[in-house]
Amino acid sequence: MINTTRGNILTKKNLLILEDNIPLNQAIRAQLSSHFSIFQATTLQQTYAFLDQPVHFHTAVIDRMLPDGDGLEILAYLQKESPDTNLCVLSQCDKVTECLRGFEKGADVYLCKPLSLQYLKAQVLALQKRGRLHQGEEIIYRGLTLNQETHFLSRNSKDILLTTRENDVMTAFIHSSQGFLSKSQLYNLFWQLGCEPSDGQIHVLMQRLRKKLRQLQVTIQSQYGAGYQMVISSPME
Fold first, then answer.
1. How far is Cα 17 from Cα 41, in angstroms, rounded to an integer?
2. Which among 77, 87, 148, 158 could disulfide-bond with 137, CB atoms 3.0 to 4.6 Å apart, if both were Cys?
3. Is 219 helix (H, G, I), strand (E, B) or coil?
């Protein structure tokens, strides 16, 4: 099944639904069609056909267990080709390790089935609202430049590309007092981003962000039981 529901392109953003359960796919479309132009697929192959077109997806709702593979494969593709696409993953598997794997692959929201369609709608609309908060702005802080539209973080002549969630966390670091985020602040941030926080999710995200920031000689230090401190090294040579 490949289907689209087009709206006024001036007011509606594009949303991709990848779900092989056709009744659920249609039910998700019914929940969100008044807010988005909907593109529907039931397999990875059909989804790649959409992604080969010049269509930008603001948000993607992606099931994991598909007839031709794991939906996380699409996350990897979107992280590379369209890092500003908000990613909502659906899965029958509620094991903590699998949830953390989804976040590690770039999921902004990870929902376990059976799910409430109203809750799914609330999560997706929260992602839509978040994407408009700082669009087009640049934040400059102690030699760092964070572009809120492109999600590029720059220092001197080096750039790194952040995911949507990494961008939000870096924004919080920059706006925080002396580059420090407490555990309670991070938990509140995750709630605002539309997902239920846990120590494991935060740890995975910080590990991934720490690895990227090394290129700019910026580190994130864990302060046990307290939170995380962003440290910017002396000017790069």
1. 6
2. 148
3. strand
Q: Which amino acid, one-letter code, is at 163?
A: T
Same domain, 112 and 153: no
Helices (H), ranges, 86-163: 96-104, 117-130
Q: Give Cα separations from 147 to 17, 138, 153 (angstroms).
A: 28, 4, 6
Q: Are 163 and 83 in contact (CB under 8 A)?
A: yes
Per-residue pLDDT of the chain (237 residues; tens, 9 = 90+): 555 554 433 347 899 999 999 999 999 999 999 999 999 999 999 999 988 888 888 899 999 999 999 999 998 888 777 777 888 999 887 777 788 788 878 888 888 888 899 989 988 888 776 554 444 478 888 889 998 778 889 998 889 998 888 888 898 888 876 788 888 888 777 665 555 667 777 888 889 899 999 999 999 999 887 889 999 987 644
Q: Residues 180, 214: one domain?
A: yes
Bond into 114 cis (ω within 30): yes
Helix (H) or strand (E) holding 206: helix 199-213
Question: pTM higher than 0.90 for the full model?
Answer: no
Which of 94, 91, 86 has the alpha carbon at shortest distance from 127? 86
Range of the domain at 197: 138-232
- For residues 103 and 166, membership in a common domain is answered with no
Query: Is residue 154 located within the same domain as residue 117?
Result: no
Q: Establish if 208 belongs to a structural domain.
A: yes
CATH at residue 10:
3.40.50.2300
Q: CA 60, 106, 228, 178 torsion: positive or negative?
A: negative
